[in-house]
Amino acid sequence: TCGKVISQCRHKGKHPKTKPAPKPKTKPRVTASYQNEVLRVGNVSYRMKYVSGGTFTMGATSEMTEPWENEKPTHQVTLSSYYIGETEVTQALWKAVMGSNPSDDKGYDHPVEQVSWNDCQTFISKLNALTGKNFRLPTEAEWEFAARGGNQSRHTQYSGSSRIDDVAWNRGNSGDKMHPVKTKQPNELGIYDMSGNVWEWCQDWNGDYSSYAQTNPTGASSGSHRVYRGGSWFYPPRLCRSSFRRYGMPEVSYRTLGLRLVLSQ
C-alpha cells in the first residue's frame, strides 16, 4: 500500500496496473485438402494413383514361386475403380496429421512404422475429419490388384518386376535398414514400394481363400488378426511376392510395418 499519508505516495493516487496473465499458446490449426489426386496436410503432400477397375486372378498364380498354402486357391476377383497411395504413408504425413512420429527409424521421407492397425484407424479418422474425404486402408484384394499392376499387369512375381532388386528393399539389399520412399523403380501403375521397404496393413480380417469368383471382397466377416502385405527391408525376397499374405493382431506394431492409403472413386 501507499501508507497513511497520501501526499507522500510517489504514485500520487495512481497505482501501477498489474499485467494480465499471458494467454495459453494454442497450436496453429492444421489445414488439409485433396485436389487433383494430391492430398495436402499443412506443407506435406501425398499423391494418389488411379487404379481402373477390372478382373484379375488373386492368389498363387503361376509366376509366384514356392507359394504358401494360404495363397491358395486362386480365384477371380472383380474390383471397382479406386485411388491408392503412390507411396507408403510417410513419417512426415503421419506427423502432420497426428502431431507426433512413432517410428523407430526416423526420417521425413521414410515410411511411418511402429503403427498398429488400430493406430492406423485413428490416423485415418483424423485425416478424414480434416479433409472431409473417406480415406481408408485398402482391402486385401485392392492391395494385390494394385501391386500386380492392375489392368496393365506384366504378370511379374514382385510389384513391377521379377527382379527384386529393381523394385524392393529386402533383406538381401537393404543394409539392414529402411529406406526413403520412391528410391526403387515403380510398378506398371507408377506405384512405389508395394514390394519391400515396410509391410502394409490392409483393412481385412484374415481368412482362408475360396475358389469362388468375388466382386469387391472385403475379407472374412470377423476374426482376431488383420492382414498385412508386401514384405519389408528385414525379410527375404520370397515374402515380398505380390501374392504373399501375412497377418497380425490389430493392436501390435513393428518397426517393419506401416500403411498405404486408399480412396474410393
Give an account of the 3D structure.
This protein is an alpha+beta fold. Helices cover 13% and strands 20% of the residues. The chain is built from four helices and 13 strands. The strands form three sheets. Strands 1-2-3-6-13-7 form a six-stranded antiparallel β-sheet. A hairpin with a 2-residue loop joins β2 and β3. It is globular.
Which labels suit this protein?
single chain; 265 residues; alpha+beta; 6-stranded antiparallel β-sheet; 4-stranded mixed β-sheet; 4 helices; 13 strands; globular; disordered N terminus
Overall average pLDDT = 93
Structural class: alpha+beta
Radius of gyration: 25 Å
Number of helices: 4
Identify the overall geometry. globular
The residue ranges in which pLDDT falls below 50 over 5 or more consecutive positions are 1-9
Ends apart, CA distance between termini: 73 Å
Proportion of strand residues: 15-25%
Helix content: 10-25%
| Helix/strand order | EEEEEEHHEHHEEEEEE
Number of strands: 13
- Order of the strands making up the biggest sheet: 1-2-3-6-13-7
Query: Major β-sheet, in short?
Result: 6 strands, antiparallel
